[in-house]
Amino acid sequence: MKNAPPLSVGTSPRPSRRKSAMLPSPPPKLTVMDLFAGAGGLSEGFRQAGFQVIAGSDNDPDAMATYALNFPEAQVITGDIRQAAVKRKIMSAAKNASILVGGPPCQAFSQVRNHSRVIDDPRNELYREFVLVLGKSKPMAFVMENVTGMDQMGVREQIADDLSIGGQYVVRPQVLDAANFGVPQTRKRLIFIGILASLGVDPPILRGSGATDSITLGRFSGSRRPIYKIVTQQGIFSSLISCALSNSSDASIVSSSDAISDLTQLKVGNRVDCQPYSEFPEAATAYQRAMRQGAGEYLTNLQVPRSNRDTELRLQGIPPGGNHRDLEDALLERYITGQRWGQDNGTGRLSRRHFYAYRRLHPSIWAWTLNTKGDSVYHYDSARALSVREFARLQSFPDRFVFTTNPTKGVIAGRHQGGAAHSKYRQVGNAVPPLLAKAIADELRTILLADSHQRPITAIAS
Predict the structure, then answer these.
(1) N or C end of the chain: which has fewer CB within 10 A?
(2) Which has the closest alpha carbon to 77: 45, 53, 107, 47?
(3) SS3 220
(4) Does residue 339 sit in the same domain as residue 449?
(5) Higher-confidence residue: 418 or 22?
(6) Closest CA to 251 of 36, 115, 11, 438
(7) CA-to-CA distance for 11 and 376, rounded, in angstroms?
(8) Are residues 266 and 338 part of one domain?
(9) What is residue 434's predicted lDDT score, i.e. its pLDDT?
């Protein structure tokens, strides 16, 4: 039915037997509880999609400090979910959530033998806790994120069955690459989306741009050293993808330079962690403008790690987009300048464990998958590591999202070793990219709110 026409000033509405239908009912408020939240990548994506984040939980006190700073509206629960007091807080919050989200660690994929189940392995206690909270709180829907190793070990069906809670949820697993959803980084994750079967709707299938199937980075011989260039698959679709990637006004497919070119002036060893935007160039791309929205006058998390001379020489020998394979033989020596640093494997050469560290971004394509270390990838233009803010940009965290640590010094329960700087890289590297989370949340919101018009609002809140 159409809405009633607006009333003129000084008039009264005519009586109607269908008064309740004159104005549409407001949509129900969709709320989110984030288990194993880390810094809050999933929460940030759902918040951007219009959900209300009511609580987040994690055992890492540094990540929870970041979560508390960025989600002041939410209850922050710090501690081990297996502890009774912590679990009570989590269950109380979860029962008020429309959506349960999280990425529980699950360690024993490769040990599944003789029809044993992942959920029964004692090393997967945290995964089991997610399933238990889901089964007791019965939210409308859930999202569980994990590594694609589940697929490699053939346990996708087991996990989906566990999460169905005996058929109470319709569950759809799918592998999604963040680069296909506007994130300037390739990052594949196995996502389980479930919706209560009683709601009568299916979980969404997310399509994305298809960019990662259309474009790759090719290695070609150059006069002095290899050159890396974009390689586009044949076809009109791939050509459109290529055009979108090269268009700085299009934020649907984003390259590393689209993400961080306005921060190139940061120097090796920079210790100033907060600077006004006025000291940086204007945002040059649609993505940079989007990342700056709501951040105020200052940009944070700008410190850049120092580099030793050996690392600088190696980086100068690697072209943008390249890695350790591009190093000349002399640069593969363990200690080029004679300065002793790091572990020595006794061979006088770099070991395999070093190879991941010597990778340089290519400005014209998205980044490699970031890990939890600040030296997991280097700048495409400057021979330096990235700041935490540049890491965050490549993960699609907006600039207003500030990474911090718990102010308590020393060893505390749940804290990972390595110090405050390492913790911030770790928090970013472990996170679900918010724009990937937002894409999932947008689809869920559309389905759940569309369905709410077909049934009483109380059915959603129950």
Answers:
(1) N
(2) 53
(3) strand
(4) no
(5) 418
(6) 438
(7) 68
(8) yes
(9) 98
